[in-house]
Batch of 4 targets.
Target 1
Amino acid sequence: MSLAMTGERFQRGVQPPRDFPALVLNADFRPLSYFPLSLWSWQEAIKACFLDRVHILAEYDRTVRSPSVEIRIPSVVVLKNYVRPVRTTAFTRFNLFLRDGFVCQYCGTSGRMTFDHVIPRSRGGRTTWDNVVAACAECNLKKGSRTMKEARMRLLRLPRRPTPTELLNAGRRFPPNHLHQTWTDFLYWDIELEA
């Protein structure tokens, strides 16, 4: 099915449909992930609707159409079938930085990050959750292949494997650049309220 924007195709200043992602919620009404936020393109959301895999909870004020169907673009969809969350955390560069809050674990600065082996690889250190931390380029260079004691450096936090829930909660601290107004009710409803 080929869908086209209704009537506004050639007007200046009109956002194309690609700028209308849909927030995807699991069957328990929680986002599949917070960072990166679980989003589908408008095409994926509409396809899932036609395949009867989701319910539409909220829509944009824009429509798309085919020769026989016109539909409002979904902004929030919920899966009909529950997707079981992962039980382990993949050891990736992104998850490592997310665990450490995108902060150098030696000096506390944020920004462009690399990673450092606490026990250097040249001394038998392994590339594992328990031995790798986020580090700025300056601290990584300063430490080099020395131990922390030799480099006279300290860690802000000892490295360890995070649970999937810890990474999910860490992702909440970094909201995406764009949050549509229809999403906010679904993003933070499961956070414990302060007394």
Note: Helices lie at 42-50, 93-99, 137-143, 148-151, 164-172, 184-187.
Target 2
Amino acid sequence: MKNENMRKAFNLLLTTLLLAFVIVACDDKKPKNEQPTLSGNLEMDDGTDSTVYGRYLEGGMSKMVLLTDNGDTVEYYVEDKDSMVKGGCFEGDRIAIIGYKADGEYVAQHAVNLNSLQGKWSDIAKSFEIKEGGVVESNVSAESKPYSKWKIYNGRLILNTDTFDVAALGPDTLWLESDKGIFQYKRQEKLK
């Protein structure tokens, strides 16, 4: 009886180990988050920027063709371009895009039109102009922490050290969202 109980315990242990091995070996492999080679555009110290930067060439309702900063022409599938691309898609505009590669095709998850982002923005407490080249010019001398630089990093807008999701970007509105809330800005005339 003692040998039979030991044999059952051994078989149970062996079955458990075999089952654990099968579970680990059959782990669901998700597609890699691959994108075209990135330009070294505005990297931060804590890692690599996964954003792809380029010029919008053409597209339809469900695709965007981008000429990347590295000279590659890449076609991205988009579910709803009008709502996914903050600031719209206009031929020749610079676009910052986050996406992945699945089944041999590039899929866009989020994009920001950098040309639409540039301009003079203000709310009741802040007034600043986002300019080309990562420069921000503040227009309120009494501001305690005026913005002086910007960049897109992993699809998010960074103003100085504050990080935001671009929740909405239209011809005259900019909504930025962070853990501190949603900030609504109105476009003003550009500074001369």
Note: Confidence is low (pLDDT under 50) at residues 17-35, 37-45.
Target 3
Amino acid sequence: MIELAQLQQLIAVSEQGTISAAAEELHLSQPALTRSLQRLEGELGVVLFDRKRNRAALNRVGEQAVARAKAVLGAVDDMAMELRLYAARLSTIAIGSCGPAPMWDLAAELAERNPEKTLSTELGDTESLLAGLKRGSYRLILTDRPIEQPGILCQKYTQERLYVALPPKHPLSARPSIRLAELGQESILAYRDMGIWQRIVQNNPQLHYLVQSDRGTLAELVQATDLPCFSSNLTATRFLGRSNRVTVMLEDEEASVTFFLCARENDRDLFEQLC
């Protein structure tokens, strides 16, 4: 039976030019490598080398065998990679979302339903998330629009409305709703990974954003200061807690998003846990 090591040895001879150089590269004795290559010829039933006195060079059959050996070893590497990815897929639920808060909720629900699984989460835009879902990088994604494509399951998951949380004495705190631009050039606490909500930041560059990369630190600053901060119907309990704030709805068009849960057809069982 042909061994993968023999194919690697054959390729080494091709790359090094001689059996002696290949033996040195492979940390084998030259006689041991020669015997291994002779066994390979016997298994294949062909002569791979032109042998003259103390020198052996690959013949045309040998050169073809090298090309096929590289293809076989490449296929073996591909198989190993595919199996590792498949094993990871069986034990991991990878989630992608265009917004952070619904992803946190989705991850919490999945963790409760699948305690034996490892969860991974990632933010991205809808197009990159959809591409990742199709190639198997994600098992579930949350998009900002419905996806109607063959082989893709899609259903409305949740809606998020953005608010700004103000101290009670703030001049805008008595209003039922405002536009973010009405805050002028105030400083406002914000979470770094805002996902799709980044667009509202980009549309209001006059504000001074005090960006925090850690959710715990952000929650502590919300409790310890009177600085305005972003909130939503999905995040109020996480960040506001017992803080003395008044939440005022943002009228901006981009301050409301409907999120859709998507999965591939072969993940229907997982998808239906959540729908």
Note: The mean pLDDT is 89.
Target 4
Amino acid sequence: MNDILVIFKREFASYFATPLAYVFLVVFLIMQGLFTFYMGQFFEREQADLSSFFTYHPWLYLFFMPAIAMRLWSEERKNGTQELLLTLPLSTGMIIIGKYTAAIAFAALALFLTFPIWITVNWLGAPDNGPIITGYIGSLLMASSYIAVGSAISAITRNQVIAFVVSVSICFLFLVSGLPIVLNFFEAWVPDTVLLAIANLSFLSHFDNLQKGVIALSDIFYFTSVIILWLWVNRIIVEVKREEG
């Protein structure tokens, strides 16, 4: 754990080494406010809940989370520090977990800073805070899944822009797989079991349950499985790159 903590501190501090982290946080919070109060018509709906807040999280995260993850390995390769990092007396898994948890911590910080929106809805009315709490939990799980994908892709290339674009593309597929337009496309030529599997790959359907206050083990298992799978892919890529020299 101490070894992982060393990597965590190094990676988390690197986010604030430049003003970009602060710009990211400000832009993220502004976008959250715009989507909640303007696009989500928070005041016009006259309902004491945060459904308008959580509804846009999957789409905001589609761009913001890959932006957090794109530098995790790409920057190491670009600066030539990945080889040095991998020569430390640490396992590849420890390094990956340390970097990954630092990215999650930064995402969690951004999410935590949205607490004034929660305070606002409680000040204006008497919301059921249960779904709000599960919504935050689901939001962080979904963000962690996006980051896991982004971390793995970041290990492939030294170009952060390429890592970002590829990560967004893959996450987009996970996001839209459960939409009717996608399912209708596959419905005519795939078995029902395959169609159900495609629908169950969607971030939207699993996050939707959590933001409604429904904690199902299947949804927790889904996000956990996505995270573990992509961290495993991340490890394979890093080890292959290390062998290639």
Note: The chain is about 80% helix and 0% strand.
